[in-house]
Amino acid sequence: MMPARRSTTMLANLVTWGLVLLISFPLIWMVVTSVRPQTELFQIPPTVIPRAITFEHYIKLLQETPFLRYFMNSMILATSTTIVVIVVGTLGAYSLVRFSYRGRETLAALVLFTYLLPSVVLIIPLYLMMVKLGLANTLTSLVIAYTTFALPYALWLLRSFMAGVPEDLESAALVDGASRIGAFIDVILPQALPGIISTALFTFILAWNEYLYALVMVNSDQARPLTTGVMNMLITSFNIEWSLLMAASVMMSIPLIIIFAFLQSYLTRGFGAGGVKG
């Protein structure tokens, strides 16, 4: 029995690593292409391991293109959207869980229905609204736009996390003299922290990778985020700068990799906590 079990385990490990390698291959090819000399980009037959490694594409990207400006725009945009969504979503989810008022369940259902709507149907109304408010071609307009479709999902997700916090803990804090806001900060937020971090990570990735709204609502080169800025800079009707495009893709992936590395434990706990109902 032991040899058979050991063989099964070894086979399962081989299959798992094979799938990981298969899924990771596009990322590996992206990194390899970004450090491959220009002369080797279109060689036949292609090789996975380059004959030489160069960082000239990264140097050219950072020194000769507005990549850093786009990078900063995306960082400001994703961070601002995440803060707005988490603050409003946390307070809204707490209201839906802890307070009783007429239409509460209807409001929760409408929030979910809003998330189910295709985000593309809101582009024209939001664009016209930003023009009327004088916010067109600004990062502020994108923060507002991203909030419209990130907040409903965040609110629904945070509602389940808030429902998983025992109400007795908050009641005990209120009996001990804490205010409603004090109990919310000292009791509810620490208990719901894994869920809040998971939701913040989802919102950040959504804002970091969003393309359609940024393409329609921002035409100014000063306010372009990475998604549209890199496309406008490196992809034209006549040419694609593949080496710079791969280098830019690697650079765009670094913040997300760092965030996942530091918040992985919270993310795992958040996914587990989200299924708990109070």
Automatic annotation (TrEMBL):
TM spans (from-to): 12-32, 70-94, 106-128, 134-158, 187-208, 242-263
Alphabetical list of CDD domains matching this protein: TM_PBP2
Annotated Gene Ontology cellular component terms: plasma membrane
Keyword list, A-Z: Cell membrane, Membrane, Sugar transport, Transmembrane, Transmembrane helix, Transport
Topology within the bilayer: Multi-pass membrane protein
Main location: membrane
GO biological process assignments: transmembrane transport
Subcellular location: Cell membrane
PROSITE patterns: ABC_TM1
Sequence ranges assigned to domain ABC transmembrane type-1 in this UniProt record: 71-263
Pfam families: BPD_transp_1
Role summary: Part of the ABC transporter complex MalEFGK involved in maltose/maltodextrin import. Probably responsible for the translocation of the substrate across the membrane.
Family listed: Belongs to the binding-protein-dependent transport system permease family. MalFG subfamily.
Record-given protein name: Maltose/maltodextrin transport system permease protein MalG
